[in-house]
Amino acid sequence: MKRLGVMCFLGLAGCASAPGIYGPKELIIDRKFVDQSQYMVDLAECQRYAEQVPMAEQVTQGTIIGAAVGGAVGAVVGDSDTAKRSAGAGAVLGGVESYQRASREKHQVLRRCVEGRGYLVLN
After folding, report:
1. Mapping DSSP to helix (H, G, I), strand (E, B) and coil, where does residue 90 land?
2. In percent, how much of the chain has pLDDT > 70?
3. How big is the chain by its Cα radius of gyration, in Å?
């Protein structure tokens, strides 16, 4: 059973860290009539804004909440070992969910900033 838990954790961690799956995707803009050098300056500034999304804090909070909920469910359903396993699974799932949510927020900040500077974002 522990082996299965470790495999699930590694699988979820791999998905969460794979570029472009849950993290901010690269923006595709309509480059017609766009000054590339100015776009690069604007993009860099917008990326600095997106970096202000508190990813670590959100993931930590989601992990803690997931562990608490998982542990509570495990305690109701089974014994202390079940509660511990459920808390671990809840922590992993809560952390992954929070990472995904924070990544989407980061992408939205980047996209809105670029659009606010007059670029047409296609994706």
Report:
1. helix
2. 80
3. 19
